[in-house]
Amino acid sequence: MSVSDRSEPAPGRVSPRWATRPILQVLLQGFLVGVSGTAVLAQSATPGAGVELAPIVVDRPQAAATARPVVRRTTATRAVSARRRNIRDHSASRDARPIAPAQPVPSASAPLPGADPVLLARQRLEAMPGGTAVVSQSQIQDEGNPTISKALRSVPGVIVQDFFGGNDQPRIQIRGSGLQQNPVERGIMVLQNGLPINRADGSYVVGLANPNQTEALEVYRGYIANRLGATVLGGALNFVSPTGSSAPGARFTLSGGSYGQLNAGLQAGFRQDNIDGLIQVDRSQRDGYRAYNSSERTSVAANVGVAWADNIKTRFFIGYTDLGFDVAGPLTRDLLSANPRQVFTGPTVTPSGAINPGPNVVRDRPRRETSQFLIGQRTSATFGAHLVDFALGYTYTDDMFRFPISSGVRTTRGGDFTTLLRYGYKPDETSLLPLFESSAQYTIGSARRGNYLNLGGVQGSQFGSNDLDASTLSLYSGLNIPIWPAVTLSPSISYAYATRDNRDTFGLATRPTAAFSPARPYTLLPNGAVPTQDTSYGRTYQGWSPSLALSYRPVPDQTIFAAVSGGFEPPTHDDLLATVNGTPNSSAGRPNPAAPFAPADAFRTPNLKAQTATTVEGGWRGRQDNLSWDVVSYYSWIDNELLSLRDAAGSSLGAINAGRTTHFGIEGGIGAKLTDWLSARATYTYQDFRFQNDPIRGNNRLAGAPRHVVGAMLQLQPTAEWKIVGALRWQPEKTPVDNMNTVYAKPFAVVDLKTEYRINEHFTVFGEVGNIFNERYAASTLIVDVARRDQAVYLPGDGRTFYAGVRATY
Q1: Residue 275 has what pLDDT?
Q2: Looking at residue 285, what is its pLDDT?
Q3: What are phi and psi of 729, to 5 degrees?
Q4: For an engineered disulfide with 380, which of 39, 450, 541, 597 has Cβ 3.0 to 4.6 Å away?
Q5: What is the CA radius of gyration of the chain?
Q6: How many angstroms separate the CA atoms of 546 and 492, rounded?
Q7: Would you call 262 helix, strand, or coil by DSSP?
Q8: How far is CA 346 from CA 183, 330, 355, 365, in A?
Q9: Within 13 Å and on the Cβ side, how many CA atoms surround 535?
């Protein structure tokens, strides 16, 4: 791995600013070129794979499966109905089992001739030597308050910590990647139909991903995501959309409940001859559990697939998401216990100094409003033993984040263009994985960023202006070599080259500052200013990530594997450009009276190195009779781990590279069909992430990572039409809030109950009671370097909630 530092963007280098201008014309031209290319059967991140894959979940029994839509019996729709019956029957036979397909796969290396893509894709993922999982649509659609947090809750190794309970920004981390950002905007590649919604620098807004419009959610943990172009330690999430072929007919869902929750979704799909299409409209809104806690999201998406020939297919995508939510902020431990629905009003001034540090949410009214437009195409073609997969995508993101006064209002607007080419060679038609696979992905983008004062929830004077450019090139090649019956050796190598360029366009000699009186926090003090320091930089990062895996399938339904791999993750612009020196009552750059000789800078631009890792892991997944299991353990040695630090008041200190850290974890799940009417499942994630001989933090645990996370689910099926599911979420041990391990969040256990009843082939009703025992707990916390015991760092989870809904399918 190497890093080069340029104080300015490299002269003579082509700027990606064209990405936001004639890009649509370029993309449409790419579509025309792609017509002569290739196609995927669905939008799985595995080339040519289907979308309905078997995770470790409790699914509905066959009799209670979603009714098949009724369509008019025209000549065109008879073929659709016949194909859909085949797919539904396959899916129903899988859903009849709690965690895995009931019928054994005939051979680990010999798929059934003519088997549908769903079964083949499931077999391929189970054969991969790494951590994988899939969340099916049936797990998501019955939620009264469907969020990405709930969609991922059943996956071992994926830790989701709610921030505000709605469609906002929960902390999602896999194997600790991106753990210490507030909010998390790095560490995972987020894909939609195989194309990234991450920006070109790797950052993302997790609330833009909509599980309501997802047919399956694929999870790739760790190095196994390298083949997708992921230059992160955690891995990748791929949100797979339904198509007109997989979901013909129409579906309408309406649900609502506590705290003003209301969800409505409409979906319609068709297929005729060699063309299919699907459109989705979704609206979700919520007043929220807390006093300042509203959220809303509107999403529109469509896709059209064309089969140009038996071996050449193309799918076009377009979508728009508009997201907005209040940032209710943290509470102190005492306030959390007394009334978790309130919001914090900032520090209290006493004769001996300020106590209870934290943001004044009532005054500053932090909020985020983000919209994203996405358009793309993906084409696949098979030529004998050769598979070619070609994709183009473009996203335009408009993001406004009104932080508390310490950071101010941040606006980021820009576009990103992605091109992907993947090749696979599979000379043996009976094998599950290609003998050779290679891919190249290039993402380039630019954005204009502005920083403004937050004056009591109103955007004030501008104190920062930057043009941000980024590009990331990811190359991958891998082999799956059969070296013995049922034994496969899988070596691979990936290379990443990333650029991060920033041009400071703020033209004034000083940057304005603002402050409120600490004793009278709603009284604005006279305006101030600090000298302008140039924040321009140019950074280049490159690194190799090799891996070597060995897998053994003693029987068709089991895979045992071991692997060693390298990881590489460059910083994002949010790591490289941060507001600093603010307080709960003053803006970034405001001079601190307690330290008059400290630099009065509003920004920090650390010269960060890329984060690298070496990981060893091993696992065993399989099924036997009515039992299914999936267990993976890993140990990572990480150099230069990227940490985003905050002080005792919760204000940003910027990002740093830690020295050596280690991440050890266990990701496990087991499920069983106990009787014809009773199924059970349990998941367990263990995390021990530590500094290693750090001069300040010693061997402390990294803040924010719960050591034990336990999930359990019990499903009762009294009749063919009715099911009842109880679920437990349990963190049995306290979690450190700060890297010094002085303040902890308490353990908690939350129990949920939901039920579903199928009235007839068209209508299904469902209901849910969340947090039955009305537990008061911190679902998440801010993560700081050194915390105070009286600090506002705890983010309350929802209290008892009630939801109900109806789903109609035709």
Answers
A1: 94
A2: 94
A3: -120, 125
A4: 39
A5: 26
A6: 6
A7: strand
A8: 20, 10, 9, 12
A9: 31
Cβ-Cβ contacts under 8 Å for 43 (sequence gap 6 or more): 51, 193, 194, 238, 240, 241, 243, 303, 315, 317, 378
The one-letter amino acid code at 199 reads R
Provide the phi-psi class of 576: left if phi over 0, else alpha when psi is between -120 and 50, else beta: alpha
In angstroms, rounded to a whole number, what is the distance separating the alpha carbons of residues 792 and 38? Answer: 54
CATH 1.20.1250.20 fits 2-809, yes or no: no
Distance from C-alpha of 615 to C-alpha of 637, rounded to nearest angstrom: 6
pTM: 0.86
Q: Are 751 and 726 in contact (CB under 8 A)?
A: yes
Q: Could you give the C-alpha distances from 47 to 42, 439, 481, 517, 601, in angstroms and in order? A: 9, 11, 18, 59, 49
Q: Which helix (H) or strand (E) holds 24?
A: helix 23-34
Instruction: List the one residue out of 437, 440, 310, 450 whose CA is nearest residue 383.
Output: 310
Q: For 204, phi and psi rounded to 5 degrees?
A: -155, 160
Residue 157 identity (one-letter amino acid): G
d(CA 95, CA 81): 20
Give me 576's structure tokens.
Answer: 């490289």
Query: If the chain, 810 residues long, is cut into consecutive pieces of 10 residues, what is the mean pLDDT of each piece?
Result: 49 42 38 33 46 29 36 40 41 36 34 49 80 82 75 89 80 87 81 89 88 87 90 88 91 94 95 94 94 94 93 94 94 96 93 90 96 94 93 96 96 96 90 92 97 97 98 96 94 97 96 94 93 96 96 92 96 94 91 61 94 96 92 96 83 88 96 94 96 95 95 94 95 95 96 96 95 95 91 95 94
Question: Is residue 99 within 8 Å of residue 60, measured between CB atoms?
Answer: no
Question: Is 123 in a helix, a strand, or coil?
Answer: helix
Query: Do the beta carbons of residue 621 and residue 558 sit within 8 Å?
Result: yes
| Cα 686 from Cα 404, distance rounded (Å) | 34
The helix (run of H) or strand (run of E) holding residue 218 is: strand 216-221
Alpha-carbon torsion 429, 431, 436, 437, what sign?
positive
What is the number of alpha carbons within 13 Å of residue 106 lying toward its C-beta? 9
Show the tokens assigned to 449: 């960023």
Q: How far is the C-alpha of 44 from the C-alpha of 50, rounded, in Å?
A: 6
Residue spans of the domains in the chain: they are 2-809
Question: Please, are residues 297 and 263 in contact by the beta-carbon 8 Å criterion?
Answer: no
Distances (CA, A) of 599 to 397, 406, 533, 581, 623: 34, 16, 11, 9, 61
Pairwise CA distance, residues 431 & 456, whole Å = 63
As given in the structure block, the two tokens for residue 590 are: 């405001």
The H or E element spanning position 666 is strand 660-673
Give the C-alpha distances (Å, rounded to integers) separating 216 from 42, 219, 446.
11, 10, 31
Buried/exposed code over 416-454 (b: 16+ C-beta within 10 A; e: otherwise): bbbbbebbbebeeeebbbbbbbbbbbbbbbbbebbbbbb
Backbone torsion region of residue 302, taken as left when φ is above 0, otherwise alpha when ψ lies between -120 and 50, otherwise beta: beta
Beta-bridged to residue 254, according to DSSP, are 264, 806
Residue 344 burial class via C-beta count within 10 angstroms: exposed 0-12, middle 13-18, buried 19 and up: buried
Which residue is listed with tokens 């140039």?
534
Question: What are the backbone angles phi and psi of residue 410, rounded to the nearest 5°?
Answer: -115, 125
- Look up residue 556 and give its DSSP letter: T
Cβ neighbours around 388 below 10 Å, total: 18
Burial of 148 per CB tally in 10 Å (0-12, 13-18, 19+): buried
Whole-angstrom Cα distance, residue 610 to residue 184? 17
Question: How long is the chain?
Answer: 810
Residue 202 DSSP symbol: S
Three-state DSSP at 638 gives strand
Distance between alpha carbon 479 and the CA centroid of its chain, in Å?
A: 28
Rounded Cα–Cα distance for residues 46 and 205 (Å): 24
